[in-house]
Amino acid sequence: MRRVLGIVVTAVLALAACSPAAEAPDRQGTPSPEAPNATPHVGVQLFQWPWASVARECTEVLGPNQFAFVLLSPAQEHIQGDQWWTSYQPVSYQLESKLGTRAGFQQMVAACHDAGVEVVADAVINHMAGIDGGTGVAGSAFTHYDYPGLYADADFHHCDTASGDIENYLDQQQIQECELSNLADLRTEDAAVREKIVAYLDDLVGLGVDGFRIDAAKHMRASDVQAIVEQVDGDPLIISEVIRGSGEPVQPEDYLDAGSVFAFQFAKDVSGIVPGGAVYRALDLVDGDVPSEQAYTFVTNHDTERNRQTLSYKDPDKYHLANVLLLAVPYGTPVLYGGYAFSDPDAGAPQADGVVTPVDCAEPGAIEYPEPGTWLCQHRAYAGLAQWAAVVGDAEPQNVWQEGYAVAFDRGSLGLIAINGNSTKAIEPELTTNLPDGTYCDALAPDDCSHEVRDGRVKVAVAPMTAVALYVP
Ligand code: LM2
Ligand code: CA
């Protein structure tokens, strides 16, 4: 069911500036005869990024560093307001939002495709708005259960809890037919509602979108999600958002017939492992019974960085190491994250006249405690590691070395990583590796090309809470 993302980009690899170093006479410039094809593997959620900024990021950063895909924030018309979460209260399916226009969206998809980056849209299809009424950002008038020309009262669930909201997460019917935070809940079991949703998703596919995050998938029956995505044109990638709750009647595994799922348990587990220092445990992480090919792994997303269920930029060293582990282990397809600093969890991205202003990334590592509203572009710190991940592909860990709070391993014979989870002590092990003899640069510090592999051995110095990653380009 899952589409294989991305394309083979050997030509770009051959031009890679570093790793192994230009000094290495045996590997200079051109790939060696045994050089592999790299398959872009890593995605990034660019939270609340306007389309024009996404386009630029694809061209300048994501494409050249072999990112596989970008996950957008919702593109449809939404309620007015400064908060970021207005994006999750649809008012119509016009592609006019605080993030840009339909034309801008189309240009962004084209730019990303030109750069070899696929585009995954955030599809908010479980519900419409959560307020009594008003006018959307593109001028559509609505009330809670009436969206003229699109949905009327009969298209919504009206459930019988006292509040009309979900009150008991042990009751499947409530989870799927009551309201999530007062958001008008669509009757996704009805053919007429499905038709409207499919038309919206088809419109996005027509503009070149390659896949969808299914927002609040847990709040729709798995059979509804499956029926909807099966009707959509083409064969888009589907990633359902189903937050695992222990003992709950709705679980991520239920949605595997519809495609892939986000691995929330992985995010929480990796966020728990790093502070304890036992980084080697990340090698064994799996998310329930979700197979690797259907798991979209991450450290944080826009919700968990706010509810603190996972690490985030607010835990600089630990977050860094968790992101390294995310890309280092073979389980799942990793999704990095790029957002903005906040103190108020409701605060929207920097905006003017209801439109998010262009993203201006902070210098990496320049600021320890960024001002609210600073664009952090956290994913850029892992651009080199995204290339490493593209090269090692799905090769299993080999030559696993573990001592104290450090772990090192090869991934097949094309990449090695050494990770130091100790927050005070540096390490300098001499490792056995499958890497061919040569001089290598560190994918996490591209200017450091001091790493010599001789006779299958390499000595790597790793500072506290950092990692060193080497690969064959
Ligand atoms: C999601 N996935 O299932 C999104 O990832 C998450 O960010 C969304 O919540 C949620 N589901 C609905 O799509 C966010 C935000 C909420 C916010 C909603 C709707 O986390 O706080 O709720 O979007 O905008 C807000 C208010 C809430 C109010 C509701 C309705 O915070 O107090 O409920 O709007 O007006 C009365
Ligand atoms: Ca529902």
Automatic annotation (TrEMBL):
Residues 1-24 form the signal peptide. Residues 41-392 form the Glycosyl hydrolase family 13 catalytic domain. Residues 398-473 form the Alpha-amylase C-terminal domain. It holds the Pfam family Alpha-amylase. SMART domains: Aamy, Aamy_C. It catalyses: Endohydrolysis of (1->4)-alpha-D-glucosidic linkages in polysaccharides containing three or more (1->4)-alpha-linked D-glucose units. This is Alpha-amylase. Keywords: Calcium, Carbohydrate metabolism, Glycosidase, Hydrolase, Metal-binding, Signal. It comes from the Bacteria. The lineage of its organism: Bacteria, Bacillati, Actinomycetota, Actinomycetes, Propionibacteriales. Belongs to the glycosyl hydrolase 13 family. PROSITE patterns: PROKAR_LIPOPROTEIN. InterPro entries: A-amylase/branching_C (IPR006048), A-amylase_C (IPR031319), Alpha_amylase (IPR006046), GH (IPR017853), GH13_cat_dom (IPR006047), Glyco_hydro_b (IPR013780). Its EC number is 3.2.1.1. Its cofactor is Ca(2+). It comes from Tessaracoccus lubricantis. It is an enzyme of class 3 (hydrolase). Coiled coil: none annotated.
